[in-house]
Write a structure and sequence with these properties.
Residues 90-117 are annotated as: Disordered. The protein is mainly α. It has helices at residues 2-14, 42-66, 71-91, 119-135, 142-163, 197-219, 224-250, 271-292, 298-318. It is flat. The relative contact order is 0.12.
């Protein structure tokens, strides 16, 4: 039996034709199946969206300038391109020009195929790009979320400049984020806190209270409309502090209270010093809120991003204009003033 079983395979092979040359064997390229292309994760998709928006804004600005835009809207539009160059660099994305060649970061007035938008339409496009960056903040990694919050704040400021916002807007009228009072009804999800959230929220609430006190002190050195606007801003900052405090209590923390007194960075000698104090405390609040973004999750992260947008917008509105201040438009809050 063993001999017969051993002979069967040999007999079968003996009756077969010779094996073909391996070089003549056709290999199916789809066997066992081609590898599926990698699926971009949330960070990659958000990064690509922010970069695509920066390039689209450049093309819109170039069409806007080629149509003969002049004056303040043209200057603001050029700042959109300059900020976009900074955004692309921070995102680690190539700075391609409209024809696919490396861009210089400066807009051109050469004719383009794109239809020329009006100033209002361009401002709306910049504001839409701000909202797109903001919407990606909750679902991205902590580092990218912080960057996208700064990009959203930058585009919000630029949209105001392009559309010619009033010199000192109403505290609740900020493009790219709802008024502070409107987020009090937001469901702060997820309800479970993650490590570090309470500390970040406590620091942000304390920062908003300090800013409110600083603006109140500045108001005493201002007169008439400027004083009224400062007092309105103080109220908006107190609303910010209340919203953050509610989020802090929701994760098991204790709402902070305003300190009995705060140390001014310098004595106030008049209206100019008062305005400088307002911009200083608002810049500090924007930096505090931006630094809180990575430590938070869900709606709480979005809340901090919105505080960054509002604080940066208020600071920009109060700051005396000048080229030296334009660098603050690219990535607000990334550097805290001393």
């Amino acid at each position: 039996m063993l001999g017969l079983l051993a002979a069967v395979p040999l007999a079968g092979l003996a009756g077969c034709s010779s094996l073909p040359d391996l070089s003549a064997v056709r290999v199916d390229p789809d066997w066992p199946g081609t590898a599926a292309p990698p699926v971009p994760d949330a960070d990659e998709r958000a990064r690509a969206r922010a970069a695509d928006d920066a390039r689209a804004l450049r093309r819109a600005v170039e069409a806007f300038l080629a149509a003969g835009a002049e004056g303040a809207p043209a200057v603001a539009a050029a700042l959109v391109v300059a900020a976009g160059t900074e955004h692309l660099a921070a995102l680690g994305e190539p700075d391609d020009g409209p024809d696919g060649a490396p861009g210089t970061g400066a807009p051109t007035t050469a004719p383009t195929d794109a239809p020329a938008p009006s100033a209002a339409a361009l401002a709306e496009q910049v504001a839409g790009a701000a909202e797109a960056a903001r919407a990606d903040v909750p679902g991205t990694s902590s580092g990218l979320a912080r960057l996208l919050a700064a990009v959203a704040a930058s585009r919000s400021l630029l949209a105001q400049r392009v559309q010619g916002a009033p010199e000192v807007p109403d505290p609740s009228a900020v493009t790219g984020a709802g008024p502070a009072g409107s987020v009090t009804g937001t469901v702060l999800t997820p309800p479970q806190a993650v490590p570090g959230e309470a500390a970040a929220l406590e620091g942000l609430a304390a920062g908003a209270l300090a800013a409110a006190r600083g603006v109140e002190v500045a108001a005493a050195s201002l007169a008439d409309d400027a004083r009224a606007r400062a007092l309105d801003l103080r109220g908006a900052l107190e609303d910010e502090a209340d919203v953050v405090a509610a989020a802090l209590v929701a994760v098991g923390g204790r709402a902070p209270v305003a300190a009995p007194d705060y140390v001014l960075p310098a004595p106030l000698g008049g209206a100019d010093d008062a305005v400088a104090l307002v911009t200083l405390v608002l810049d500090r609040l924007a930096a505090t809120a931006l630094d809180a973004v990575p430590a938070l999750v869900g709606e709480r992260r979005l809340m901090a991003a919105d505080t960054t947008v509002r604080a940066a917008a208020w600071a920009d509105a109060w700051r005396p204009g000048g080229p030296a201040d334009d660098v603050r438009l690219a990535l607000p809050g990334t550097t805290a003033p001393a």
